[in-house]
Design brief:
By secondary structure, this protein is α/β, with parallel strands linked by helices. It has twelve helices and seven strands. It is globular.
Length: about 325
C-alpha cells in the first residue's frame, strides 16, 4: 500500500483558502518559475468546477464597469467570483500597462472576490500563455465563476475561446462596432453580445442591428448568440446579461457539449505548450548547436530556404516512430 504524496505547501495553502498562497503561486506562474510546477500538478484535479466567462471588446466600451456590475450581481447571489484581467504588455518592462484594478468596484475585505491583473506578454490573441493556469488556480481556490477580461479590438481576441466556456463580446453605439463586427470575426467569438452604455442615443439601433445579424447567421451547435442591452451607469440590464451568460452555460450541459469543448481547449493548450518548449529549446540551440548554425549559414547564403530548414529541424525534434 502506497501513501499519498504530500501536497506542496503553496497548493495546500490554496486549498485552505489562503489568499497570500494563491497570489504567490500566481506570481510564480506568471514568471514561469519552475517552483510552480508541482503545485499546479497537485491542484489540477481540484479544478474543473468553476464557470469560466470570457469578456472581450474594443477599448472604451466599458468592460470594467460592466464587470463591476456583474460582480455585484453575482455576489448578491452568494457566488464567489475570480477575475483575471489580461492587459497589454509594456514593451519596456513586460508588465501590465492597464494593471490598475481600481476600475473594478468591490466591497473592501470581501473574501468572495479575487482579482488578478496579468500582462499579455505580447501574445497576439490577447491571452497570456499562463492565463489558463491562473484560471485553474482560481477554480481550485473555490471560485464559482471566473471572469477573464481581455483588452483589444476584438479582431485578435479569438483566443478567449481557448480559455472560456462562454464568451461575451461588448460593444457600444456610435463606434462603428456594428460594421466592424462583420469583418472582425466577432460572430465566431460571441455566445452573447452586450450593447453597453444603453443610455446613449443609438443604443436601441445598435441592438436591433446585432439582433438582425445574429438572425441571419448560423447556429453554433444549436446555439444562437443572444443580444443584451445594459448600462453600468444607470444601472440596468445586468441581471438580464447574467441570465444570458448562464443560459449558454446551461445549454452546454444540456446538449452534452461541455466535455467536447473542454477536450478541444485542452488539445490546443497541449499543442501550445509543446510548441513553446520546442521553441525555447531551439532558441537555446541557435548559437551552440553546429547543425543549427549550418542551417543558418545556408539560409544566409541562400543555399536553402526557410521551409526546408524548418523541415530539417522538425525532423530532428520529431521522436522516432
Amino acid at each position: 500500500m502506497t501513501s499519498r504524496r504530500p501536497l506542496p505547501p503553496l497548493a495546500r495553502g490554496v486549498l485552505k483558502g489562503d489568499r497570500r498562497a494563491l497570489a504567490r503561486l500566481m506570481s510564480l506562474v506568471e514568471n514561469r518559475d519552475a517552483e510552480a510546477g508541482p503545485a499546479l500538478a497537485a491542484l489540477y484535479p481540484h479544478a474543473g468546477k468553476a464557470r469560466v466567462i470570457g469578456i472581450t471588446g474594443p477599448l472604451g466600451v466599458g468592460k470594467s464597469s460592466l464587470i463591476s456590475g456583474l460582480l455585484a450581481h453575482l455576489r448578491g447571489q452568494g457566488l464567489k467570483v475570480g477575475i483575471v484581467a489580461v492587459d497589454p504588455s509594456s514593451p519596456f518592462s513586460g508588465g501590465s500597462v492597464l494593471g490598475d484594478r481600481i476600475r473594478l468596484d468591490r466591497a473592501p475585505g470581501d473574501q468572495g472576490v479575487f482579482i488578478r491583473s496579468m500582462a499579455s506578454r505580447g501574445h497576439a490573441g490577447g491571452i497570456a500563455a499562463t492565463t489558463r493556469e491562473v484560471v485553474r488556480l482560481l477554480d481550485a481556490f473555490g471560485m464559482d465563476v471566473v471572469i477573464v477580461e481581455t483588452v483589444g479590438s476584438g479582431q485578435v481576441d479569438v483566443e478567449i475561446r481557448d480559455v472560456a466556456s462562454t464568451s461575451l463580446v461588448v460593444l457600444v453605439p456610435h463606434l462603428g462596432d456594428e460594421v466592424q463586427s462583420l469583418k472582425a470575426g466577432l460572430f465566431e467569438i460571441a455566445d452573447v453580445f452586450c450593447v453597453n452604455k444603453s443610455d446613449l442615443p443609438g443604443a436601441d439601433g445598435a441592438a436591433r442591428y446585432l439582433s438582425e445579424m445574429v438572425a441571419l447567421g448560423t447556429d453554433r451547435d444549436g446555439w444562437r448568440p443572444r443580444v443584451v442591452s445594459a448600462s453600468a451607469k444607470l444601472p440596468q440590464g445586468i441581471p438580464e446579461l447574467w441570465e444570458a451568460l448562464a443560459a449558454h452555460e446551461t445549454f452546454l450541459d444540456a446538449k452534452g457539449l461541455r466535455a467536447a469543448s473542454e477536450r478541444c481547449r485542452l488539445g490546443r493548450e497541449l499543442v501550445g505548450l509543446v510548441g513553446e518548449r520546442v521553441g525555447e529549446t531551439l532558441a537555446e540551440r541557435l548559437d551552440r548547436d553546429p547543425r543549427v548554425n549550418r542551417l543558418l549559414t545556408e539560409l544566409q547564403t541562400r543555399t536553402t530556404d526557410p521551409r526546408a530548414a524548418a523541415e530539417k529541424l522538425y525532423r530532428s525534434f520529431r521522436p522516432e516512430s
